[in-house]
Amino acid sequence: xxxxxxxxxxxxxxxxxxxxxxxxxxxxxxxxxxxxxxxxxxxxxxxxxxxxxxxxxxxxxxxxxxxxxxxxxxxxxxxxxxxxxxxxxxxxxxxxxxxxxxxxxxxxxxxxxxxxxxxxxxxxxxxxxxxxxxxxxxxxxxxxxxxxxxxxxxxxxxxxxxxxxxxxxxxxxxxxxxxxxxxxxxxxxxxxxxxxxxxxxxxxxxxxxxxxxxxxxxxxxxxxxxxxxxxxxxxxxxxxxxxxxxxxxxxxxxxxxxxxxxxxxxxxxxxxxxxxxxxxxxxxxxxxxxxxxxxxxxxxxxxxxxxxxxxxxxxxxxx
Amino acid sequence: xxxxxxxxxxxxxxxxxxxxxxxxxxxxxxxxxxxxxxxxxxxxxxxxxxxxxxxxxxxxxxxxxxxxxxxxxxxxxxxxxxxxxxxxxxxxxxxxxxxxxxxxxxxxxxxxxxxxxxxxxxxxxxxxxxxxx
Lengths: 319, 133
Prior knowledge:
By secondary structure, chain A is mostly helical. Helices cover about 55% and strands about 0% of the residues of chain A. Chain A is built from 13 helices and no strands. Chain A has helices spanning about 10-30, 35-70, 80-105, 105-115, 120-125, 140-145, 150-165, 180-185, 185-195, 210-215, 240-260, 260-270, 285-295. In chain A, helix 3 (about 80-105) packs across helix 4 (about 105-115) and helix 3 (about 80-105) packs across helix 7. Residues about 300-319 of chain A have low confidence and may be disordered. Chain B is α+β, with helices and mostly antiparallel strands. Chain B has 3 helices and 7 strands, in the order H-H-E-E-E-E-E-E-E-H. In chain B, a hairpin with a 4-residue loop joins strand 2 (about 60-65) and strand 3 (about 70-75). Chain B is elongated, with a radius of gyration of 19 Å. The chains are: A mainly alpha (about 325), B alpha+beta (about 130). The interface of A and B includes residues 34, 238 and 290 of A.
């Protein structure tokens, strides 16, 4: 196998631990409820399990990637501009995957683990899926290989993207400078993404760059008068590790077993999360529609923000 | 797989969680009053219009009825509250002022609320679908 670049994630892990402890110290002074020991334990064990799952399946993904590379359109080497382009394409691929992960139940079943905490802190960043390989989420990056970018370069870029997303999982940082908030994914943008407030549902899918959300109409700014409420629509109410890891897959299995007809079964697999053949459950769309119906006169989106706005200037102070 | 790395990771995980526990993180938030319960229920269940609530004497659980007849159970989940919406009638058992509610979800668990005799009787009837007294 060709030589791989170093894995940036494993070098970042010690920093992750230190930063979690720093954030915990801040939370102890500001709001102890930002951390809950059992939630932290569940999140970190999920992250450890995700690493194990990745170790077990990573070789297969890498092998597939190198096999696919033989069909590449171009031969792009390790030139300087290729690094920039691959970071951009990988981030765009992440946006597409992430949007599918919220809009297609099959991918949501893997991704929901990350959203299932009712807390938003750096340990939540490590609350990662065990079933990413099973759900084939790696497939979204494969077109980049077919274009001709080196596989090790893509894997390295993905690792950097992952590391970047660690620090945005915090309430300890308010807003970054406006120019930064305009381009990059930030704690503020990502708090919106993790929120279950109807206004914030299915918004801000960014990895590193918020520009994709701005381009494709999925951007929503955080409002100071509407604090995010974290978790999922139907919160687990349990710290059980295995339940957190598999509950949506179990839900899919129950729905498939309980409904007749292939059309309905495919709906429970690939329609948006919450879809049901009898319409008795809520999807993000029905929740948003109901909220919009009840809030006709309130600003609905970023485009309707009142003059003067609510975003602060440069603010990196602890919240 | 490097088993030593895995063991070290698990040690770090339990150490960090232990520090959170020793540092007194989380706490036990309480539902302050019926208004607070109704706010929590409205936030937890999109479109829910609360009309009446009863709060457990410890503040760690509450029942909120909506204008359309649905009942939301709020139950403490660590430092937060988790909610369940009862559209059908859950299993209910009343012992004086104590109401035990079977949510039917093994992972969520059942709920026990100390409401006092009168409220427990009232909410038991509501949960069982009977008319108000």
